[in-house]
Design goal:
331 residues; alpha/beta; six-stranded parallel beta sheet; six-stranded mixed beta sheet; 11 helices; 17% strand; elongated
Length: 331
C-alpha cells in the first residue's frame, strides 16, 4: 500500500504542503472549514502521521516532555520536583507544558513536543480530557508515553498513580472511627479515574460502616479551589451543614473552607478530610485531616518507568498499572 504523503493531500486539494500540515495540527492560521476538508481527505486517502525526519538520524534528543494540568497546585509542583531530579541524574532535559485543564491546549502541547522530537512523554491529563485519539497518534509515531496521577487505563500505556480508592476508603474510615456519621463528599468528575476511584473508596467505607449516603450529600465537580467553593455552595443548597466533609483534593477543601469563612459559617462546625495536603495545613483555622500522597516519589517512579520502557529492547512493552500507597495524617 502506498504511503500517503502531505504533498499527495496538497495536490488533491490544490493547497500547499505547509497548509496541509497546519490544518492537520489545527493551526489557527487555517480556517475551520479548510481544516475539516483536509482531515476528511487525509482519512479518505489513508494518511497516517509519522516522524519521517526521525528516521534520518539515530541520535536521541535526550529530552522528555511533561504535561500537567496546573503548576500552582502544590501536588504537581512536588511531582515535578521528583521528575526533574531523576531526569537530571539520567542526563535528560525536561520540557514542561501546562494544559490549564484544557483538552485542546493539552493536545497542542503534545503535538508540539512530538514535533520537537522528544524521546518520551509523561502526561497527567486535564479534568476535561475524554478523547484518547491524540495518544493513539503518539503510539503510531513510536514515542513512549507514561501517564501519572490522571490518565486512561485502556489506552495501552503504563500508568503510575496513588492508590486512590484504598486511600480514600482508609481516610473516610478514620473519620468514622473518630465518631463522624454524616459525611458529605465533594467528588471529582466521574469521567476522570482519580475522581471515580476516590468516590468509590468513600462509598465503600460508608457502606461497610452501615451508613447511608443521601443523594444530596454528594456533589460532583472539578479538582480546583473554585470547584470546592461552588461545590460546597451547591451542597448547602441541597441539604443542611454536614458533620464532616470529604474533599476529592486539597484545593477543593480550601475552596469549601473559603466559602464557609465568606458566608459566616464557623469552620469548627465541620471537620474536613482532603485527599492530599501541603505544609500549610497546620496554619488553617481548623486543620484538615489529610490523606497524604507520596508526591515526589510519584514523579520519580513515573520517569523511571518511562526510561525503562524507552531503553527496552522489546518492540512493545507490556503496560503496567503501578499504584503507590497513601496514608492518613490526623490534625
Amino acid at each position: 500500500m502506498k504511503n500517503v504523503r502531505l504533498e499527495d493531500i496538497a495536490n488533491r486539494l490544490s493547497l500547499t504542503k505547509v497548509s496541509i500540515s497546519k490544518a492537520l495540527r489545527d493551526h489557527p492560521d487555517i480556517s475551520v472549514e479548510t481544516r475539516k476538508k483536509v482531515k476528511k481527505m487525509a482519512k479518505k486517502m489513508g494518511y497516517r502521521p509519522n516522524l519521517q525526519a526521525r528516521s534520518l538520524t539515530s541520535k536521541k534528543t535526550r529530552t522528555i516532555g511533561v504535561i500537567i494540568p496546573k503548576i500552582a497546585h502544590s501536588f504537581f509542583s512536588l511531582v515535578m520536583e521528583g521528575i526533574y531530579k531523576r531526569a537530571q541524574e539520567k542526563g535528560y532535559k525536561v520540557i514542561l507544558g501546562i494544559s490549564m485543564e484544557n483538552e485542546d491546549l493539552e493536545r497542542q502541547h503534545i503535538e508540539s513536543m512530538m514535533e520537537m522530537r522528544v524521546d518520551g512523554l509523561l502526561v497527567s491529563i486535564s479534568e476535561h480530557t475524554k478523547n484518547a485519539e491524540i495518544f493513539d497518534q503518539v503510539k503510531e509515531m513510536g514515542i513512549h508515553l507514561v501517564f501519572f496521577d490522571r490518565g486512561f487505563m485502556e489506552a495501552g500505556y503504563s500508568y503510575i498513580k496513588v492508590a486512590d480508592r484504598e486511600g480514600a476508603k482508609s481516610g473516610v474510615r478514620e473519620m468514622i472511627d473518630l465518631g463522624y456519621r454524616d459525611i458529605a463528599h465533594l467528588s471529582g468528575f466521574s469521567s476522570v479515574l482519580i475522581g471515580r476511584d476516590r468516590k468509590r473508596g468513600y462509598e465503600e467505607a460508608m457502606k461497610e460502616a452501615g451508613l447511608k449516603i443521601p443523594e444530596s450529600s454528594v456533589v460532583e465537580g472539578g479538582f480546583g479551589e473554585e470547584d470546592g467553593y461552588e461545590g460546597f455552595k451547591k451542597l448547602l443548597e441541597q441539604r443542611d451543614l454536614p458533620e464532616a466533609l470529604f474533599a476529592v483534593t486539597y484545593p477543593v477543601g480550601l475552596g469549601a473552607l473559603r466559602y464557609m469563612i465568606e458566608n459566616g459559617i464557623d469552620p469548627k462546625e465541620i471537620k474536613i478530610l482532603t485527599f492530599g495536603g501541603n505544609e500549610f495545613i497546620w496554619s488553617l483555622v481548623t486543620p484538615f485531616i489529610c490523606i497524604d500522597q507520596p508526591t515526589v516519589e510519584l514523579g520519580k517512579r513515573a520517569i523511571e518507568q518511562l526510561l525503562l520502557e524507552m531503553e527496552s529492547e522489546e518492540d512493545e512493552v507490556e503496560p503496567k498499572l503501578i499504584e503507590l500507597p497513601a496514608s492518613t495524617i490526623k490534625s
